[in-house]
Amino acid sequence: MRATWLLLLALALGVALGQEADPREEAKKQKELLLKTAGILPTELVVAQGEELFNRKGPSGRTMAECDFGLGKGVLEGAAARLPRYFLDTGKVEDLDSRILTCMTRVQGFKPEQIRRSEVVAVAFYIASKSTGHKIQVRLLFPQERELYALGEKLFYARTGQRDVGCATCHVTYVGRRAGVLSYADVLGQDKSWTHWPAYRYSNDQTWTMQDRIRACYGNIGHPPPNLYSLPILALELFMAYNNNGAVVEEWPAFVR
Amino acid sequence: MAIRVIVRLTPAKPKAGEEFRLQAVAQHPNEPGTRKDAEGKIIPAKYINLVEVYFEGGKVAEARPGPSTSANPLYGFKFKAEKPGTFTVKLKDTDGDTGEGTVKLELA
Fold first, then answer.
1. CA-based, 20 to 30 A from B80: which of A48, A59, A219, A246?
2. Contact B25 A49 (CB under 8 A)
3. Can you point out the beta strands (E) in A65-184?
């Protein structure tokens, strides 16, 4: 008798767990709800802020329209989908965040200590919004790009920190399983995670780019996060972007949990 | 610094005589003046305490929100669509900073 009850309980529990909504579907629902009630997404405010900052004149009297984001001066359509890439003027591989930083310091004449991270993120949201619907096209043309890609691949599969895990532990080995609410994304495969950032995280009211996401990942595995705009982050970004080549950007900035 | 405001109508193009909502989202920290920073010092109050809605220059609605409003607040007003025109939402906070957003009302 008792065994039957236990069996029934286990069955009921199984049904209850099985009925849990897919968090990605939930994010979509949340977005629709917000659009229905408010009519305005928080991302739109940040994009508007980014546009204002983009057209703001720096100490040198120039706006960001004077900067080259990879497709020529002031060309933003699809520019973010082709980053990170090697830039001849700086001699470095740069992603969207670091390119904005370069633009603000080199062209606009801001001092590095004057630049606020929130402003960089807002501009990144604005520039990324111009790549919605574009395909990710990242190339490994220059030796610097190939070198950084190799470093990124190494870092992605390296295990480190207190728990002796790495990016690949969750995002390759344990794809589909979960530790928190969300199941681990198949970063290199079908989930095309590169196209999910920059994004607004509605559960925490955060505006994040991929740089913040990677830093948080390192925090999760008990490893000190690399600095913003640093080489390990750029390497991982290039590695992920290249492996997501051809993926279509559904919406930038994205709206995630 | 100007307060950033986005204004929308739901539905975007109401029929004549139909009720619609005018909604405005502002980018503002809305500090109530009771929170403390990392050093334990009180963060001074700075919140939006006046929301005015103008239609074609004439004031049609006003709200005076208190300190207990969330950051990046959403304000909504219900109106009845009669004639097309432009709505202007004007905000003012306790520091005297202002913001303005406009939206056009077009009848379906």
1. A48
2. no
3. 85-87, 92-94
Q: Which domains does chain A have, with CATH numbers?
A: 2-38 (no CATH), 143-256 (1.10.760.10)
> How far apart (Å, rounded) are the C-alpha atoms in residues A203 and A42?
12
DSSP-based three-state secondary structure for A29: helix
Q: Are A197 and A257 in contact (CB under 8 A)?
A: no
Which chain A positions have a beta carbon within 8 Å of B8's beta carbon? Answer: 39-40
Tokens 């991982």 sit on residue: A236
**Mean pLDDT, each 10-residue run in order, chain B (108 residues):** 85 87 90 92 93 93 92 90 91 92 88
pTM exceeding the 0.95 threshold for the entire prediction: no
Residues of A in contact with B23 (CB under 8 A): 38-40
What was the ipTM of the complex prediction? 0.70
Whether A55 contacts A64, CB under 8 Å: yes
A36, A40, A205: residue with CB nearest B6: A40
